[in-house]
Structure formats: structure tokens, C-alpha cells
Amino acid sequence: MITARAAASFDPVGRSVATARAFVRDTLQGWGYADVVDDAVVLTSELVTNAVVHAGTKADVLCLRSDDGVRVEVADRYPEREVPLLGSPADVAGPDRENGRGLLLCAALASRWGVEYTPTRKNVWFQLDLPNRPVGTRSAGPALPTALLPVTDGRVRVAVVQIDRAGAVRAWNEDAEELFGYPAEQVTGKALTDFAAWPHTPGTSTGIVEALQLSRWEGTYGIRGADGRVVPVYASHLRVRDTEGEPSTVCLLVRDDERAVLQSPVRQPATDPVALGESRNVDPFEVFIGSPAPDDLDGLLQRTVERARDMLDGDSAFLLLATDDETELEVRATTGLPSARQRFARVPVEAGTGRYGSARMPAVHEDLAAVPGAVPLLESTGMRSVVTVPLKVEGRLTGSLGVAAESPGRYSNEEALRLQFAADRIALAVESARLGELERLRRGSLSFLVEASDLLAGTLDRDQTLALMAQMTVPTLATWCAVYTIADQASDPYLSYVLHEDEERIDGLKALLSKINPPEPVPTPGARVWTAPGEAAHHAALRVSMRDLGRSGSPHTGGGLGTTLSTAAAVGGETVVLPLVARNRVIGMLTLGKPSDDHFRQEILELAEDLSRRAALALDNARLYSERMAISRSLQRSLLPPGLPQIPGVEVEVIYRAAGEGNEVGGDFYDLFPIRDGAYGFAIGDVCGTGPEAAAVTGLARHALRLLAREGFGGPAVLERLNAAILDEGARSRFLTLLYGELWPQEDGSAILKIVCAGHPLPLRLRQDGSVEPAADPQPLLGVMEDLELYEQTITLDPGDVLLCVTDGITERREGTRMLGDDGLTDVLASCTGLTAGAVAARVLRAVERFAAEPASDDMAILTMRIPEQAKR
């Protein structure tokens, strides 16, 4: 009778085999069938490999639970049968073949098995029966003397936390309050991820969200307590559902050093030599690690230290992996020690001159109290005796394995030989898993750097570049970061940006860093340790704690203790500084930090160094761009008139739009200036082209017009001399169309204008009756011929009349094949009767913008002059 089922499909890719193994393992452990998990995982692995690797199709895995065992079915989309050749049965499923072993294993391990074919698929199934056991017995360990039982710190507390479908906390018992410091009402409804300190590095994908979705999961992580410190815990997750079918996850949490309370015992391999000889050859690696071995490096290392501790009956164990240059060892797994504090800490391979000071040789320390500092990892842990052995692959040091005890004299050379024998069996598997993890990290790092480069290249804004630098490092590379910038060689480093993964700690962190001297701007590449933040935070926490306890005369300030302790915990780990070097100059420093007693791993520091080089260049590019834009804007503003004069009895309005991003002045220009008492000059022109080259001729023309007009030259003489100046520029000269005029307001309210239109769009006059007519005749443009014969025309603007002067960016506004033109501009002006000069200019600009959907590609200038009706006397 089938009592439960679980099904999943896996794509035809290599990683699906490991995913299928995890699916079957988690499903059977969730059902309480730990006795058949190992065999089920082995068979599933072989059958799924046949489907996704050899057959190249999807694999459908179905697990069926019954009262007496479990049935697992693996189906693929390759229905053809393999027909054996007559006389060669060994070719069908030999043990040395790359494929076909799945069916041999089924025959050897399963209670029953079979193969079913349909026109579209092939289904291989196997049945594993449960062993007969007394009712109520699941697993048991040997009876141990009291002195050998695991040691706990006071009462053992088991936190019971229930997580709903969305990942939010729904239940939080009293032991959870005691362990982590949060009352139930403070955490209920919040996501567990807000409190969990889950390891996160580039290239790894499993997180707490995924772990909460598994039917059963056991492992180690941290919970950030109310005091800001991370409490290492061992967790057992069980996925359940209520009577309404709503799923939730029940999490049992104990302190990491009390994991024996929750940890499920792993089935030991058979040790009967006869039985082993009859069934199969025994792999020494599996004898030590157990079968199946963990798929991931962290799981393999954790299983290794736990087995090593149990094998030598120790109180703790640790495993360190060597860096690529074999100069340092990095702590990667511990048991019985504060793992969160020690993880990724580094110690030198050669710590002394004797054989006991080198990790390359086995070593036994009978009493660490007699040789302080012999094993830095065990300082202040209470361990007295220790045995360490190297892990080597082909003569190269790859790591170190050690077991320690709280009592002296526990280990001798005999234990060292046993531990070395085990280390030799696992060294190759550990190195293979380490290389696999390193490859995944490097692929993740490359992806991370490509994305970072794209983001940094997408902006030239300095502040945005600083924010991107910080957001890319937190929390991917570090818990917090600070960016210091250096304006020039004579300036001190300035704290420009601070970010922490917990936003509530940013202000406290910024205040702390502002009170200490910044790191030295050393151009040497690579990360260097900076101890000042941690020391400053420690002293600040000590002072505030003493004041809070009333040990000093300082007045008590409420709320300061919690903030100071939180900041101290945030910067209490390792802090490193990386120089930001661009164009052979240190332009700043990138500071990365970890929380209390945590360390950076070497791969993360290398990735941070790559990021700092890219970020430095992006930051310097943003600085150069800002400086050049400031210079450009300053120069461009100098080409515009400082302001428009007030002309008695005349309304004047100017609208100017330069084409091109970042341009304030282009080839179009205007000017309005007093010549002498009662006389004013005005001009509007268009230099051929746009951008800086056209702006240079613009400056020449505007300043020359003012100078010549104030020297008393008339309009034609002014333009003829300007034409000669433009031609003197030689290859830098540009064509110039120019409308120049002089204006004299009259006592009767009218105004007399003398105008010269040198190749420019003709000015338009709007009369009170709504009629529109050109106010001048066209004449040759400037910058082409040496000898010009120009003349000026005189017109009178009566009260209510409007004179509109524009550049060709207005009249040549296009939408496809249509162009606004002179006629379109005339129609727009004819509708402006009775409007002020400002309203006329605004209506013309609005009509031009609405004429086409695309942004204007040419400079535009509008100069409007109107004689108000009330000015008439």
C-alpha cells in the first residue's frame, strides 16, 4: 500500500545527477527511512547518469513509500532496448564498462527490480525493503562512560522555530529567546534570513532559502543575536504541513558545540571482513568518510573533522587547506571549536624551525601549556594535547588535519599513525573537491567582474560610481565597506562612502571611522590588514560599558551601549585595505571588513583586488569627466551675454537652445547691448556647424560686434570688419549668417531700427492687424568673400508691433520630408497678435517642438522685440 510519493524531473545536464541524489536522500530521510538512504542514492545516481548523460534525455524520478520499504522509479525518454549479441553476454553489462552498471547494482543491492518499456519511455525501478527492527528503535549508540560523554555549557537549550511558506517566523520558544536574546514578539512575522548569518560567496548557490524548502536538512550556520554577535548553531530542519495542507518548516537549533543533541547518526559501513569480501571490495576512503560521501567541499571537510575526532576520541578537530603557494594554511572546518570565529583564519605553514613547527610533518604535542603558541588555532580554547598530520597529494602539501583533547598526554605516535593513515586516504578526494570549488568560485568571480565592469562603465557620475563600488562589495565580498578618496597629492584621504549589510549600523560605522585616522595611501598592490577600526571599536565599547556600569564619573547616556556594542561587533573581524590606483596615482582606498572574529578567504581578497582596479579607473574617469565638464561649462558661459539690458518702451525676450549633450553654447548666438545713450545694438547669428569649433567663432563674432559698434561704426561697416576678422582665421574660419541692427526708442512710443541681414533668415514683423511681413532684404553671408557691399535698412515699429528674429534651427525644423519653413513660421507668428514678447517667443518654441517628435539636431535662437501699446503717448 502506497503511503506517500514524491516526484521530480531533471534536465539532461551533468549537474542533474547530484541534484537527483540530493532529492532522493532528502525525501527518504524526511520519511524516516535512513536505513535504505545510502543504497537508494547509489542506485539513483547510476540510473539518472544513464538517462541524462548516456541517453541524453530528461530523467523523471518517482519515490513511493510503503509500510515495508520504498520503491524508486527512474524513467528516461529513450525507449530503445539494447539487444545483446549472441555469444557475447559480457558486452551487455560488464562491471568495467562506462555504462550499464546501474542494472548490475540493482541486481546486487535491491530487494526487487525491473525494467518497463513503452513506445515513448523506459522505466527502471527498484524496491528496497526495510530491515526488521524492534518497534520504536531507529538508531542507537554505544554506552559510554560518563567522562567520555559530550560536554555542554550549562543547560542544553533547544530553540524551536517554525517558518511559514514565505520564510517568516511563526513560532519562537523560550529557549530561542534565551539563546539569541530576541523576545518572540520582536521576531514573529520577520524573515529568518534577517537573523541568519548564512555563508555567501561568489560561485556558491545553496542558501538558507533553499535549505528551508527541503523535506529534511541538517547543518551549521549562524544566528545574529540581539547583541549583534553571531551565535554558531547546529540546525535540524523538518518540512511539515498542517491539516489544511499549508507547508511550514520546523527548525531545531542548538549551539554548534552541542550538535550531538540533534545530529542524526550516519550508518557505519560493514566491518565484517568476510561479509565485505563476499559483497564487494571496500574503498578505504568510504570506510573513513562513510557512504555516500558529501557532494560539496564544506560537507566533505566537516564530515572529515567529525570522523577524525570520533576516531581518536578527541574533544575537537580541525582541517586546514593550503594556499596555492603553500605558504599559509586556511581554516576550513572545525568541530568542538568556535567555527564561526576561526573560519578562513590563516596560519603559516612553517611556524618554527623544528619539525614540530612545520605543517609538512606529523606532530604530537602532549601538553600545549608547556609550549604556548605551538598551535595558534587552539589558543584560549582549553585544549591541552593535539596531534596534527599533513594532507599531501603527489608529495605536495594540500592541507593539515588535527585532533585535540582537553586533557594533556592523550596522544602518542600510535594515534599520529592512525590519523595519518586516514589523511592519506582522504587527501586526494579533498583536493579534488577543493579544485572543483575553486573552479566554481572562479567562474562566479568572472561573472561578477563582468557585471561589475558593465555597471562601472555605465556611469560617469562620481557619486554614483562610489555607490556602485560599495553595493558591489556588500554583501558579496564583505560585511561592510568604506571608500576613501584623495583629491590630489597634497590632500588627506577623505571618507566618501560607507555601507553595511545592515542599514541600521551604517551611521554608527560612519561615526567610528570618522574619529580615527584614515589608512595610509600606499600604492603597493594587494590587500593589507588594517587594525585601527577594530581597536577603536573595542576601546569605545569598553568605555561605554564602564560608563553604563557607573564606574566612571561620566553621565549615563541611554541607548549608547547598544549602538556601540553593535558597531564593535560589526568591525570586530578582519579589516583589509586595497589601494585605488589609476594612472600611476593613488586616488583612494577601498576598505572591506568582516564582523567579530571573522576572516577573509584568499579567493575573496583576490577578487576584491581585481574589482578595486576596475573601480579605481572608473572613479578616475568620473573625476576627469566632471573636471572637464566644469571647464567646458565655464568657457561656454563666457560666450553668452552676461544679461539683457532694460530698454525703455521696448519688451525683449530671448530663448536659446544649444544642440548636443553638455553644450550650453553652439553655433547660434545672440546679443543685445547698449551702444551709447538712447541707442542699442542687437544681433542674432548662426555659425556653420555645432559644438566647440562653432562656439569659438561665436565668441569672436559677439565680442567684435560690441567693440566695433561702440567705436561708432555703422551697421555695414561693423559687418565688413567682422567679415575680414573671420577670414583672417584661415582654416579655422566658418561661414556666418548674421542679422545685426541698431535700435532707438522714440518719445512717441515707437522705435526706429536700422537692420543689416547678411545671409540670415529674414526678420518678421507682426502688425496689430495680424499681418506678417519680412522686415529686411537678404544680403551675402560673412566668411566667404573678402569684398562685401552691405547696406542697412530702416524700419519703424509702432506700438503693438512685434519683430521676430530666429536662426535656421527654427525654420529648418523637419519631420520626415516636411519642414516648418518660412511659411510655417509666418503662420505661427500671425496667431500671436496681442501677446507679449515673452509669450510670442514661447509660442514659437512650442510650435517648433511639436512639429517633430525627435529632439532638435540644430541650435535654436529666438529674439523677440515688441512695442507695448501703453507706451504710446
TrEMBL record:
Protein name: PAS domain-containing protein
Record lineage: Bacteria, Bacillati, Actinomycetota, Actinomycetes, Kitasatosporales
Entry keyword Methyltransferase: no
Pfam families the record matches: GAF_2, GAF_3, HATPase_c_2, PAS_4, SpoIIE
SMART domains reported in the protein's UniProt record: GAF (SM00065), PP2C_SIG (SM00331)
InterPro entries for the chain: Bact_Sigma-Reg, GAF, GAF-like_dom_sf, HATPase_C_sf, HATPase_dom, PAS, PAS-like_dom_sf, PAS_4
Domain PAS: 160-192
Zinc found in the keyword field: no
Species: Streptomyces violascens
